[in-house]
Amino acid sequence: VEGEQYAEAQVVLERAFARKGVSADREQEVPFLNSLVVAYLKLCLREIKKGDRGRAGAYLEQAMVGCRRVLAVREDAYAYLYLGYAMDMQDRAAEAAAAFYQSLQLQTERPTMIGTYSHLAHSLEKMGELGLAANALEEGAMRVSSVELYEELAALYERSGALEKARMARAAAAAVRAD
Question: Using alpha carbons only, what angle is made at residue 85 by residues 83 and 89, rounded to the nearest 5 degrees?
Fold first, then answer.
């Protein structure tokens, strides 16, 4: 049943994505396109789990096309976030970090910001930029009072051998937790 649902979703997505001018008001296309992008990213992950890298890559490319279509209409936090995911999946850490950073400039929702700061830090860490990764986690943790980001910061410091900084990050997490 699940396979049939994905197959049906794929057909619907391909038809919808192929349509030109979803609405007269391009601004109204943005939520629709972002939903398509999420669906394509989920299909991509599903194909990766099945071991079909070719189909996964095709879905990933469709997700990126959708992000670019949204960004052609307006600056959009979710489109940059999803573009960052897609770039990260292609091991394009610098471009992923830039997309995550752009997303953060536009975001106002705390839960989304926590995840975006985390993804930004992971991209920076992949690039070997541990200091910038730590800065991103610290900025995010302070900006949104996030225990999760302080814990990630502590783990990053532990991986890099900065144990005193890790201890301080864990203490900050405990202080936020206590509030």
Answer: 115
- Chain segment 38-56, per-residue pLDDT in tens: 999 999 999 999 999 999 9
Distance, in Å, from the CA atom of 27 to the CA atom of 47, rounded to the nearest integer, reads 31
pLDDT digits (tens, 9 = 90+) for 95-140: 999 999 999 999 888 888 999 999 999 999 999 999 999 999 999 9
Q: What is the pLDDT of residue 172?
A: 96
d(CA 59, CA 54): 9
3-state secondary structure 44-109: HHHHHHHCCHHHHHHHHHHHHHHHHHHHHHCCCHHHHHHHHHHHHHCCCHHHHHHHHHHHHHHCCC
Is 42 in a helix, a strand, or coil?
Answer: helix
Residue pointed to by tokens 């990260």 = 88
Contacts of 77 (CB under 8 A, 6+ apart): 103, 104, 106, 107, 108, 112
Distance CA 99, CA 85 (A): 9
Model-level pTM? 0.83
| Residue 91 near residue 75 (C-beta atoms within 8 A) | no
The conformation of residue 167, written as its DSSP 8-state character, comes to H
